[in-house]
Amino acid sequence: MSRSDLVLRDGRVLPKDCFHVSFSRSGGAGGQHVNKTETKVDLRLDLACAAQVLGDHDVARIREALQNRLDADGRLVAVSSEHKSQFMNYRAAQERMVAWIAQALVRKKRRVATRPTRGSQRRRLDEKKHRGDIKRGRQSPGGE
C-alpha cells in the first residue's frame, strides 16, 4: 500500500513521515477473508513532527481538544476497520483524522457584551405594567 501525505481542509499538507501506520486482522463480517488478511488500519500522527507544518499554537489546540484520542506517546490515533479493503480503511482513517483536526482548529467567536437599548428597556417595562393592569382587572372588586 502506498502511503501519501495528508492534505488538511485549510490546504496545509502533513508529510507522510509524520505518520505511523500499522495493520492488523480485523474482526466482523468477511468469512475466511477476515482470518487471513490484515485490513484493520491504525493511523497515528506524531504531533511533534506535525508542529513543523501546523505550528506550536495549533498543535497545542489539537492536544487540548483531542486529548482523549491521544496515545501514551502523545500521538493522535485514528483506527478504521469498517471496510473489507485495507486501502478503504486507510482512507477512512485519514478522513477521520482530517475531520478531527479541522474541528479542533475552529476558533470560537468571542462574545461581545452588549447592553439593552433605552427603547427596549422602556418597551419591556411598559409591557410589564400592561400585563399587571390586565391581571388587576381580573380581580373581584372586593379585594378577594
Explain what you see.
It contains five helices and five strands; from the N terminus they run E-E-E-H-E-H-H-E-H-H. With 144 residues, it is an alpha+beta fold. It has a domain at 6-104: Double Stranded RNA Binding Domain (2-Layer Sandwich). The radius of gyration is 28 Å and the shape is elongated. The model has no long low-confidence stretch (mean pLDDT 86).
**Strand order in the sheet with the most strands:** 3-4-5
CATH class of the domain at 6-104: Alpha Beta
What is the radius of gyration computed over CA atoms, rounded to a whole number of angstroms?
Answer: 28 Å
**Structural class, from helix and strand content?**
alpha+beta
Helix tally equals 5
CATH topology term of the domain at 6-104? Double Stranded RNA Binding Domain
Give a short synopsis of this structure.
With 144 residues, this protein is an alpha+beta fold. 44% of the residues lie in helices and 16% in strands. It has a domain at 6-104: Double Stranded RNA Binding Domain (2-Layer Sandwich).
Furnish the topology, listing elements before pairings.
Layout: E1 6-7, E2 13-14, E3 19-24, H1 32-36, E4 40-46, H2 47-54, H3 56-65, E5 75-80, H4 86-104, H5 118-138
Antiparallel strand pairs: 1-2, 3-4, 4-5
